[in-house]
Design brief:
By secondary structure, this protein is α/β, with parallel strands linked by helices. The chain contains ten helices and six strands; from the N terminus they run αβαααααβαβαβαββα. Helix 1 packs across helix 10 and helix 2 crosses helix 4.
Length: 223
């Protein structure tokens, strides 16, 4: 992996342009946090707004016991909930533009293995293009051998990643020495900016950065 100090987003994109792009799913492609707030309200009667999710650890943000968290995790990963998650604004058009420009897209998620087929169907229904799909044991939750370990992920090379998780942003930036575009969420607002972690407010801002770099051509017609 290249070890350079990038001076602009354009330099960051161009110097790694031959490598695939890593894109997370929850709260990167899909609007997951809002749905979690609704689920917590329905299951436990707790009113926690999206802006109050200050910790990536949901048991902390929603003040759940270990038993309550396990229940939430099981309920939320049911088919009817995951299939109804909306796509984040501008995510599809930006990813489509990247794919049409010849970039290889890898969707990389930390969801449980049993959601694999459903997540693939969600991507298909929403017409989000990708070339490879990987489930990674990002948080020590997955016991099935089919999920990639963090060590296996670290052996892969990416141009850059699009993430929301503070833990994964640090892992990708430091261990994989790969730039990360961090989609800003309440739980990652304290993650510091540096030469490998670049905060972006949303997909429109990320798409605009790509347009300004000139690497993917003119994206103006997509917004």
């Amino acid at each position: 992996m290249l070890d350079v100090v990038v001076e602009s987003i354009g330099d960051l994109l161009k110097i790694r342009s031959a490598l695939p792009i890593y894109i997370d799913v929850d709260d990167v492609l899909s609007e997951t946090g809002q749905a979690l707030c609704r689920c917590v309200r329905e299951e436990f009667g707790k009113a926690v707004s999206f802006d109050q999710i200050r910790e990536f650890d949901l048991s902390v943000s929603f003040d759940l016991t270990p038993q309550e968290f396990r229940h939430l995790f099981a309920v939320f990963h049911q088919d009817e909930i995951l299939m109804n998650l909306p796509v984040l604004p501008d995510a599809k058009v930006t990813v489509r533009r990247w794919s049409e420009s010849g970039r290889e897209i890898h969707v990389v998620t930390g969801r449980p293995w049993h959601t694999r087929d459903l997540t693939l169907e969600w991507l298909r229904i929403h017409e989000i293009p990708f070339h490879q799909f990987h489930i990674v044991d990002k948080y020590g939750r997955e016991s099935e051998d089919a999920a990639l370990t963090l060590d296996q992920l670290a052996a892969r090379s990416y141009a850059y990643a699009v993430e929301d998780s503070p833990h994964m942003a640090e892992f990708i930036a430091r261990r994989m020495r790969t730039p990360v575009f961090l989609i800003r969420r309440p739980w990652n607002e304290t993650v510091p900016f540096n030469d490998r972690i670049i905060p972006v407010s949303d997909w429109q801002a990320l798409g605009a950065a790509c347009e300004q770099s000139g690497l993917f051509g003119n994206l103006a017609g997509f917004y």
